[in-house]
Fold:
Amino acid sequence: MAEHTQANRLQALPPYLFAEMDRMKQEQVKKGVDIISLGIGDPDLPTPAHIVEALARAAADPANHQYPSYEGMPAFRAAAADWYRARFGVTLDPATEVLSLIGSKEGIGHFPLAFVNPGDVVLIPDPAYPVYQAGTVFAGGVPHPMPLTRARDFLPDLDAIPGDVLKQARVLWLNYPNNPTGAVAPREFLARAVEFARRHRLILAHDAPYSEMAYDGYRPESVLSVTGAKEVAVEFHSLSKTYNMTGWRVGFAVGNAAILAGLGRIKTNLDSGIFQAVQVAGIAALTGPQQVVADNCRVYQARRDVLVGALREMGFDVQVPRATFYLWVPVPKGFTAKSFSIEVLAKAGVVLTPGSGFGAAGEGYVRAALTVGVDRIREAVERLRKLGIRGN
Ligand SMILES: *Cc1c(COP(=O)(O)O)cnc(C)c1O
Structure:
């Protein structure tokens, strides 16, 4: 196969630690181990029935069987704009300030192709969702990591970015509520980021798929609700986590019309939009009863409280996330993120995601996803306890 060497852009990707963990998990499964996976950021609850029914009806209609329009159905974009106004008080023109995406991952991955030239810098949080980096590398861009540390509440220190890096920078990625740390951004930080992007002529790209997954009455904000944000910012949103629709592939980007037009041009040349029946189902999700979202949050909050409580009893210094379904857990002394993940997988059959897989600054942590029921969480904790594992 030497004559089919993969392109440099693939070789430039960081090693995929998660693939290695997955292989080890499969080995355990083969041995018959009852695996409890706290490793997957994918809701275990089903898509609400009214959304499934909307899809079934729309799928039966031949009008939906042909190529959809590139920018997304006007009715879907209008539903997204209405949802945004109701939720965040932000007014958007559905024709130019909303772009449909085949899941937000698709838009995030393609985004740098529209705005990043080879050698341009993209500012990326570390640890982070790996797609910001992959999309940057595919466009020939140079990722510059912005460490997220507990000492700074997992908010990047924008003033620490060197001047020469900033001069080459085109895009600033942020993601709050944050995967993998579970951190949230106060409004003042979002305002500072908008000001920073304006001053340094950056595109501020905010990835916000967890905006609706929050607890204790906390309501995450849209970066677009900051005055002047629409001049420099776009925000990526997804129906995946909010409505348990990860498999459906539907999301949208909102914000600056010229920036969205750039992404739209890339997409026009690469894809042919979202199956219209899925868009109709998306409209049902965005305009239908929102009680399903509150019900989801109640389920995750109960799981969060069980896992946080048990881990703290075991001596883990774990913070209570106000949003997302992730706990960011410091590993016990003597372990790295990877060695701890391997230990609990091999000896307890519990999958935790090593923080170092999300970037160098994720070392020293594992991510636990609240995507199994309370009974399984209790069982996982019990297995760790039996192993004699203690935090710190
Ligand atoms: C889940 C997730 C996404 C992508 O969701 P889609 O299913 O592609 O819409 C994007 N960003 C982060 C941080 C995520 O965790």
The pocket of pyridoxal-5'-phosphate is lined by residues 41, 103-105, 129, 175, 179, 207, 209, 238, 240-241, 246, 251 (CB under 6 Å). The chain is about 40% helix and 15% strand.
